[in-house]
């Protein structure tokens, strides 16, 4: 019996009127965990019931604690008929399972109904007591921390970065079960929400087990996705990077060694229970059959299975004692050995650890200094698959790929086994790995995976950046002396990562190399594409900007294999064109590198859409890009010539204008010094792609336009003309606005604290008549451009500001519908860039913001995540660390105590006739897709937020049409995320991402349905200004009004 | 290509004050877009009409969703769906409950019933305020009225507490509620020259002095209803004009005190008895509900108009009213000094406010 979950239902407010006669509600609450249910009393005739229940106690396995959500249902009591459900709250108790995160969940949660949306709020307190469990066969992985953040979280230090972890879980989708024909939409939605919650919990637990096995204690860059495969089921998959993290300078009293994976008895003792005697009395009676499963081999009531289940049964040596980072010398040696073997050769060794290391992938996009040695370029792989139906092996068929057929042979009789999906992904990862190898790289960073599903066709995509890493970090980052050596290797800081990792004489593709413009010693390519964030030590000239390539291709409607073939045939062309567009737009901006590149290919019934977003910058180490020249095919026509020259002038003007706009003024370099080895400039590609329909061997599509001079755009037909036009139609953002899709904007580093995260969704209907590729492209382009224009207009009051982490997602919900979803954060910055010295604290918080080399040396504040022993200013570092920990941690604790008190004090507060407006309202919770909060320091990570909601309506018109429906739903999702964060005692969500927004409508039936999946890290942050005050007054233990998110008072 | 769906949701709800005003003024989206275009916003920002249309739609949708909460402002403060900074919340509430002078003058003193609501069409045509805006304002009046009507304690405080309005606006609403409850006639032609401010001023004085709450703060409805006992007693004042000796004495005391101080002394002397009769008779009649309703009509007819026709300057009116109320204390035969002060103190204030062109 490893854990006891305690729940108290305090009160409700703003409940809906359930009884028309009295205009009131007789509400009561059911609290359910696993198979156990408790009930509160019925609170008669009130819209603001005060249940103030006893503590409901659930004695459960920690495995269940990880998998199951706490389910709270608010109902209206009805004497004569069935009780009506008002709504539900699902609470993920995972954050309570690791010792450093939240100790209590307490606050007002919106009561959510999938048909009616939010209907009032309920105040709940949840605690968990965990017991030590020495069961070596245990299935749980309590204690492993999860972070969505794709860098080493602030206030942690990476001891070891172990590498890639992945897992997937498959189940039948309740929406497609036969029972769905007879149950209500509400029941169906709730079944789905609950199932996905369970599957996420299970997935996380399994990933956690793998991490423990690797001797890590955390997963960073955790990305979990759902594939709604329709009839063939529901796949929940996750990837992440296993790490061993150390909390920075944490007083031992507060933070028991975080690298100890064993479960610690929580600090909340039982006697904290205000009425310890009530648990046997009172009206609350456990309902149904309580089952306490002690068996390690638990049987699940649900039907789900996962890959690699054998791993969890592997006996672990030394489990539960000591820390992985410090003990086990031979083990470490083994790790080193296997790491190297994995990184340097293909992981073909029979040893199981090496098997684990099969994929040297990292989902991180930003790294501790010194981690990234060289960057090769973007590697990506796509594969078209047919989703097979359950119990219908005849239907199974995968596009002309011999390897895939082999896989089918293994699985054709139970196609729904996760092994199929696993094998699909393994295949793609293998391709990525070989691409990286072709680029002379042993690792892939900034790695991500995605799918696009339409009917039974599924495109699996993976991409990342091939890189050479400093192997020492992969074992033990604290190794002394390695740094000097490394620094000698890449003495010129700020350009090292640009240097080519591959052999100059044996290049994987035709490339134009020059000596690095920074150090003049090593060779660099002329253009660099990557999926990672700009490294902190990169030297950038001017500012960056968002660059997008947009593309549509019509495709014939087809069934099954014919359809998959058609898609497979189109994909290479799409990739090629997307790449060309990106390259041209980059040149038009006068820049030479792309960061954060994300290419999304979406499949629809009758078209394919490609959308690539990246942040263009001018890297000082790379050569100045040449211009774009236009050449006509019919040189005799004089009017045509004139037209061409006119276009040429326009392009040249645009380049000049952009250079001015983005402040790109590279120092003049004398060409003879550089000594270009290849005379004529050519367009280079860092992009390697392949399709799985291609044979086993990796086919590298040469994207360098063959022998053609790549700077020249040939206008040989109207299509090309269109292309040139579309190049010029991209309007730069209005003055005062910048945009990028990376964490921060190169060239801006004096952010102010005002941030505004937003989601914008647009759906357009294409006129179905004579759709051509051109018209389609234009529509899509206009859609994206107009969306951006709208954003600039809406946020005009924030000028000067930058849209950061602009994340576009395209989907094709129906034949003629295109849906674009954008999530981003607008951050204001101080126009006066000269304030850098007085604003050091801002830069501190924005460690990764400093793009300037000199600045980095001055404020090497990567210290939260780095392990650099030879720090230029070690005393400053010490100072800051101690300041943060001493002030931050008590503050966080204070927030928790405030919160504990608040629900009780509720009643008093109400009765007191406080003056209007003076009574404090809901605490502010910030949300941002970035990993940091400008002008603030994150003092504590409270746990991962991973929520899935379904909303459905049968009265679409009454709710304001599709826009009104979705607007309200997204606002509700934000509200529920904020409420959960506040209940954990946090005041912000970082690395927030809306992973899915699936919208379906049927206006004729007045119906619509939407599924949204969001995730992020709940944190406590302290304003830099408060922090300074606190650090000077810490001895006095002053009360400081921070963590407003914790206050959930009325 | 048509836009099926177009939304923007911020973690902090964006409120555009200009669009909010247009929405409150009851303009349709297309009218609002046209008005925004006219304001020159496209030139300032370089946006297109389509962008403006989308932006306006978005704001309208947000306001529509907020409206439900604005009906009970404390809900706006405690709800979790829209994260709005407190200063913005206050602005939203204050603007929502703000009303047009032209509108309130039409409705002031009328019963806030369905019948009146039906007349909103006419009011809209007459005032040029959109019907939508008229409805909002009328519903606001009615909502506030319903909530505070039966409540104990200070009317202004109650309004402030339940609707989180500024002090200024709460006072205005107190006046509206007070007028609606007592059904004071304000629409007569001869009252047209009076502003809402004039009436609100009088209402405040009357609430302070003539209601139950003025004497006992623990009674129900204390601020909304006039003190019936007080109104009963007022007929005792009749002696001041009924008793000829007392009236003469009163006149002589006032005239002696004001001789040489008024520019309109002779007119005053000639009119004294008429004016005094008018004022005392108003008091004596207040026992009847019908006459309470006509209070302002009577005051204007019996006092303001005669004085105005003789071109009394305001300073003289003030001197006269001060002297007129004060000199009653020196009338030996008069026993209702306290009653007189309660009546005349308020009336003097009202009359001075009402006395203008």
UniProtKB/TrEMBL annotation, chain B:
Cellular component terms per the entry's GO annotation:
nucleus
InterPro entries referenced in this protein's UniProt entry, alphabetically: FIBP
Q: Which GO terms describe its biological process?
A: platelet aggregation
User: Which GO-annotated molecular functions does the record name?
Assistant: fibroblast growth factor binding
Going by the entry's taxonomy, the superkingdom of the source organism is recorded as Eukaryota
Q: Which Pfam families match?
A: FIBP
Which protein, by its recorded name, is this?
Acidic fibroblast growth factor intracellular-binding protein
Q: Which organism is it from?
A: Fukomys damarensis
């Amino acid at each position: 019996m490893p854990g006891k979950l305690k729940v108290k239902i305090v009160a409700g407010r703003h409940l809906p009127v359930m009884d028309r006669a009295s205009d009131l509600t007789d509400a009561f609450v059911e609290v359910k965990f696993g198979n156990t249910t408790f009930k509160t009393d019925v609170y008669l005739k009130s819209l603001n019931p005060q249940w103030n229940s006893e503590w409901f106690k659930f004695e459960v396995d920690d495995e269940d604690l990880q998998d199951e959500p706490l389910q709270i249902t608010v109902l209206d009591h009805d004497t004569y008929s069935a009780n009506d459900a008002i709504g539900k709250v699902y609470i993920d108790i995972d954050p309570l399972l690791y010792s450093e995160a939240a100790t209590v969940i307490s606050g007002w949660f919106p009561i959510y109904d999938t048909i009616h949306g939010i209907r009032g709020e309920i105040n709940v307190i949840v605690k968990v007591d965990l017991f030590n469990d020495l069961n070596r066969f245990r299935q749980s992985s309590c204690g492993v921390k999860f972070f969505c953040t794709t860098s080493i979280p602030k206030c942690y230090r990476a001891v070891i970065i172990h590498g890639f972890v992945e897992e997937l879980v498959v189940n039948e989708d309740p929406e497609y079960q036969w029972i769905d024909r007879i149950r209500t939409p509400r029941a169906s939605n709730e079944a789905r929400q609950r199932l996905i919650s369970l599957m996420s919990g299970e997935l996380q637990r399994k990933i956690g087990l793998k991490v423990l096995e690797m001797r890590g204690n955390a997963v960073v860059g955790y990305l979990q996705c759902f594939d709604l495969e329709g009839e063939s089921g529901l796949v929940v998959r996750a990837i992440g990077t296993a790490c061993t993290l150390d909390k920075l300078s944490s007083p031992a009293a507060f933070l028991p060694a975080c690298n100890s994976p064993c479960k610690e008895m929580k600090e909340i003792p039982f006697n904290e229970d205000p009425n310890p005697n009530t648990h046997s009395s009172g009206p609350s009676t456990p309902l149904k059959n309580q089952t306490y499963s002690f068996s390690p081999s638990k049987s699940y009531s649900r039907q789900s299975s996962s890959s690699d289940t054998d791993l969890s049964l592997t006996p672990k040596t030394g489990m539960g004692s000591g820390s992985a980072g410090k003990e086990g010398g031979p083990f470490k040696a083994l790790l080193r050995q296997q790491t190297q073997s994995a990184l340097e050769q293909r992981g073909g060794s029979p040893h199981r650890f090496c098997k684990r290391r099969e994929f040297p992938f990292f989902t991180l996009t930003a790294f501790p200094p010194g981690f990234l040695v060289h960057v090769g370029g973007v590697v990506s792989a796509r594969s078209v698959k047919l989703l097979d139906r359950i119990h219908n092996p005849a239907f199974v068929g995968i596009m002309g790929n011999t390897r895939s057929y082999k896989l089918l042979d293994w699985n054709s009789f139970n196609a729904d086994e996760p092994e199929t999906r696993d094998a699909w992904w393994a295949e793609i990862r293998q391709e990525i790995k070989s691409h990286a190898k072709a680029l002379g790289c042993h690792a892939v960073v900034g790695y991500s995976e995605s799918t696009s599903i339409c009917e039974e066709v599924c495109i699996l995509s993976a991409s990342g950046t091939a890189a050479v890493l400093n192997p020492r970090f992969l074992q033990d980052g604290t190794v002394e002396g390695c740094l000097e050596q490394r620094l000698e290797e890449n003495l010129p800081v700020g350009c090292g990562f640009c240097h080519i990792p591959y052999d100059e004489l044996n290049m994987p593709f035709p490339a134009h190399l020059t000596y690095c413009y920074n150090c003049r010693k090593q060779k660099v390519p002329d253009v660099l594409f990557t999926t990672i964030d700009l490294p902190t030590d990169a030297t950038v000239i001017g500012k960056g900007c968002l660059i997008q390539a947009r593309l549509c291709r019509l495709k014939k409607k087809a069934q099954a294999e014919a359809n998959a073939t058609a898609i497979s045939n189109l994909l290479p062309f799409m990739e090629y064109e997307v790449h060309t567009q990106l390259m041209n737009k980059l040149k038009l901006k006068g820049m030479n590198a792309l960061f954060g590149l994300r290419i999304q290919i979406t499949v629809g019934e009758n078209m394919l859409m490609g959308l690539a977003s990246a942040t263009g910058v001018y890297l000082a180490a790379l050569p100045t890009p040449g211009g774009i020249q236009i050449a006509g095919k019919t040189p005799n026509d004089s009017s045509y010539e004139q037209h061409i020259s006119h276009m040429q002038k326009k392009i040249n003007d645009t380049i000049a204008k952009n250079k001015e706009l983005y402040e790109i003024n590279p120092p003049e370099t004398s060409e003879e010094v550089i000594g270009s080895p290849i005379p004529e400039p050519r367009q280079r590609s860092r992009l390697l792609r392949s399709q799985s329909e291609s044979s086993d061997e990796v086919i590298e599509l040469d994207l360098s336009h063959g022998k053609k001079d790549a700077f020249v755009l040939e206008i040989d037909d109207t299509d090309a003309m269109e292309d040139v036009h579309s190049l010029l139609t991209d309007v730069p953002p209005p003055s005062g606005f910048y945009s990028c899709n990376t964490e921060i904007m190169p060239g801006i580093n004096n952010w102010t604290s005002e941030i505004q995260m937003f989601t914008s969704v647009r759906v357009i209907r294409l006129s179905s008549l004579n759709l051509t590729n051109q018209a389609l492209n234009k529509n899509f382009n206009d859609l994206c451009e107009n969306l951006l224009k709208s954003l600039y207009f809406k946020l005009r009051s924030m000028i000067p500001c930058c849209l950061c982490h602009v994340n576009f997602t395209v989907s094709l919900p129906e034949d003629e519908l295109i849906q674009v979803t954008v999530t981003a954060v607008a951050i204001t910055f101080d126009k006066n860039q000269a304030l850098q010295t007085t604003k050091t604290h801002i830069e501190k918080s924005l460690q990764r913001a400093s793009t300037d080399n000199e600045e980095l040396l001055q404020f090497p504040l990567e210290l939260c995540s780095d392990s650099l022993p030879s720090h230029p200013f070690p005393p400053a570092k010490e100072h800051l660390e101690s300041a943060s920990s001493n002030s931050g941690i008590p503050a966080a604790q204070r927030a928790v105590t405030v919160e504990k008190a608040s629900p009780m004090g509720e009643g008093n507060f109400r009765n007191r006739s406080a003056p209007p407006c003076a009574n404090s309202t809901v605490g502010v919770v910030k949300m941002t897709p970035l990993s940091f909060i400008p002008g603030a320091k994150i003092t504590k990570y409270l746990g991962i937020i991973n929520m899935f909601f379904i909303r459905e309506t049968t009265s679409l018109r009454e709710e304001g049409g599709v826009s009104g429906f979705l607007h309200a739903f997204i606002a509700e999702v934000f509200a529920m995320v904020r409420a959960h964060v506040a209940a954990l005692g946090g005041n912000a969500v970082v690395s927030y991402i809306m992973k899915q927004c699936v919208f379906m409508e049927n206006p004729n039936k007045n119906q619509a349905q939407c599924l949204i999946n969001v995730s992020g890290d709940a944190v406590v942050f302290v304003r830099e200004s408060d922090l300074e005050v606190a650090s000077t007054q810490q001895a006095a233990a002053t009360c400081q009004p921070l963590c407003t998110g914790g206050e959930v008072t009325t | 290509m048509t836009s099926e769906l177009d939304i923007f949701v911020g973690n902090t709800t964006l409120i555009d004050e200009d669009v909010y005003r247009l929405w409150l003024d009851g303009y349709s989206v297309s009218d609002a877009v046209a008005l925004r275009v006219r304001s020159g916003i496209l030139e300032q920002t370089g946006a297109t009409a389509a962008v403006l249309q989308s932006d306006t739609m978005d704001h309208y949708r947000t306001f529509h969703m907020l409206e439900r909460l604005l009906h009970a402002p404390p809900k706006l403060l405690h709800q979790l769906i829209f994260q709005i900074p407190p200063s913005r919340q206050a602005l939203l509430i204050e603007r929502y409950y703000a009303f047009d002078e032209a509108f309130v003058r039409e409705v002031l003193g009328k019963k806030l019933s369905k019948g009146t609501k039906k007349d909103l069409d006419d009011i809209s045509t007459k005032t040029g305020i959109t019907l939508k805006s008229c409805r909002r304002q009328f519903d606001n009046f009615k909502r506030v009225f319903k909530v505070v009507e039966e409540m104990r304690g200070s009317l202004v405080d109650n309004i402030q507490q339940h609707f989180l309005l500024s002090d200024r606006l709460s006072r205005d609403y107190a006046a509206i509620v007070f007028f609606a409850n007592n059904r004071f006639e304000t629409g007569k032609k001869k009252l047209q020259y009076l502003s809402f401010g004039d009436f609100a001023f009088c209402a405040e004085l009357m609430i302070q002095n003539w209601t139950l709450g003025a004497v006992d703060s623990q009674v129900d409805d204390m601020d909304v209803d006039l003190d019936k006992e007080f109104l009963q007693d007022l007929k005792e004042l009749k002696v001041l004009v009924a008793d000829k000796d007392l009236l003469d004495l009163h006149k002589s005391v006032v005239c002696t005190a004001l001789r040489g101080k008024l520019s309109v002394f002779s007119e005053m002397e000639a009119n004294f008895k008429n004016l005094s009769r008018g004022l005392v008779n108003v008091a004596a009649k207040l026992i009847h509900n019908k006459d309470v309703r006509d209070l302002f009509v009577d005051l204007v007819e019996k006092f303001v108009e005669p004085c105005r026709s003789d071109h009394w300057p305001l300073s003289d009116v003030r001197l006269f009213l001060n002297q007129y109320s004060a000199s009653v204390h020196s009338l030996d035969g008069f026993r209702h000094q306290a009653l007189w002060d309660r009546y005349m103190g308020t009336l003097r204030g009202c009359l001075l406010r009402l006395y203008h062109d």
